[in-house]
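Propose amino acids for all 250 sites.
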């Protein structure tokens, strides 16, 4: 049976998973990995990391004397490792009980809406058609199959239409596949879809329909930090959010 877990998506990882972080890098380093996920995490000139979520996390960790070091890893590998607590910290993570077994969750810092996009053309389905209707018509949907898109998606879409779901690594490649006609629809955070398509110069329509709307957190491995760390992090994050609340994507 097909099942999907949402990894909303930029991750901080140790290079050597089975050694304590302090013995490998020193206690002041956490490692970031994952595909670009603009506008929340991007690599700019000379691979300099940026993005809204990244900069927020980096600023809080800096106050705690931790360095945040990015590293790119495939989405499927990250999705597997995160549930086992092998990832230091995850950006924009939705809470699931499975993840909580090996990870701590920060207080929520923004809300995301999951939707889908399709190409602007005369043959595009009417805007009033929902995702379920489009899939019943045989449309294919590109996504990160290691992600968590909510219980409705899992039970009503992922399982019955699994043969029409296509895993493609990174949002940029998913948008390219859409532009080339290799898939009919792409699923992701709505702001990610709109921002990435504009950046790549590809005109798409982002659905008004919300497949899932959820709070997101920073998620830390229980093998990398402790409860005292989380208490301090949450206090600093709460103080920051009072001054600079993170805007929802609607």
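Proposal:
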């Amino acid at each position: 049976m097909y099942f999907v877990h949402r990894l909303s998506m930029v991750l901080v990882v140790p290079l050597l998973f089975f050694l304590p972080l302090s013995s490998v890098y020193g206690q002041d380093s956490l490692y970031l990995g994952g595909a670009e996920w603009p506008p929340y995490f991007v690599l700019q000139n000379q691979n300099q990391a940026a993005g809204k979520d990244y900069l927020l996390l980096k600023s809080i960790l800096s106050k705690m004397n931790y360095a945040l070091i990015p590293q790119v890893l495939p989405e499927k590998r990250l999705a597997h490792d995160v549930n086992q607590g092998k990832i230091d910290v995850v950006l924009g993570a939705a809470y699931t009980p499975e993840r909580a077994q090996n990870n701590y969750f920060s207080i929520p810092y923004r809300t995301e809406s999951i939707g889908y996009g399709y190409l602007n053309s005369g043959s595009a389905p009417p805007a009033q058609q929902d995702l379920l209707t489009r899939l019943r018509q045989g449309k294919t949907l590109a996504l990160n199959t290691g992600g968590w898109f909510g219980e409705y998606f899992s039970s009503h879409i992922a399982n019955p239409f699994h043969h029409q779901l296509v895993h493609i690594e990174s949002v940029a490649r998913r948008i390219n596949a859409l532009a080339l006609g290799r898939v009919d629809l792409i699923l992701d955070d709505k702001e990610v879809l709109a921002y990435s398509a504009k950046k790549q110069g590809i005109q798409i329509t982002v659905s008004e329909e919300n497949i899932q709307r959820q709070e997101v957190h920073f998620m830390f491995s229980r093998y990398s930090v402790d409860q005292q760390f989380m208490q301090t992090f949450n206090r600093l994050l709460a103080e920051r959010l009072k001054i600079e609340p993170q805007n929802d994507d609607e």
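The radius of gyration is 18 Å. The chain has two domains: 10-110+214-243, 112-212.
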